Amino acid sequence: MINICDTSVCTGCAMCASVCRKNAITMVESPEGFLYPYIDVDKCVECHECEKKCPAILCAVRNPESDFYMGWHKDKDVLLSSSSGGIFTAIADYIFDNGGVVFGVVRDPEINRVYHTYTECRDNLDPFRLSKYYQSEVGEIYKTIASFLKKGRLVLFTGSACQIAGLYSYLNNKRFENLITMDVLCHGVASKKVIDSYIESQEKRYHKK
Length: 209
What we know:
The protein is α/β, with parallel strands linked by helices. The chain contains eight helices and six strands; from the N terminus they run αββααααββαβαβα. The longest helix has 15 residues, at 192-206.
């Protein structure tokens, strides 16, 4: 029986679910409100591909020397509609100008569902801006990105550092010249149940949404 990795180190990046050729792995919300892989033993053929590529097991953390820069968008409207400096919008505009695709996270306000998706149009960029605070659902995104890369399309993928590690692992750590990854500042994803509970308590306190 495959356990992949212990939940104490699992980041919920969903790489294992994406790499499973038998669709035996799904991401399921735990009682604490975090997403963890669930293995259907009836479908699993124990190929161990999920274990071989799990970033938490590989601990493939590279610490190269880096140059750091600080910047902000020169358009005040973009700056005010962004969480911080609007760099995401600036890079996304570059991607669109070069016929590329932008992957990021959006939120369904009706059910507070937060998930990865993509857009090929700058007019659809607003939902990708601002902080979401929830652990996002990756779904089939890694597979979709791989498909665009093989077609030679320029791709921007934004997410947590753990999700970016999951993407690179899915891509066999191959570096693509047409792939730009951009991780958000992250102190660890929050539990959806905790956030939903907090929102509910505030709505009761102030008697409004």
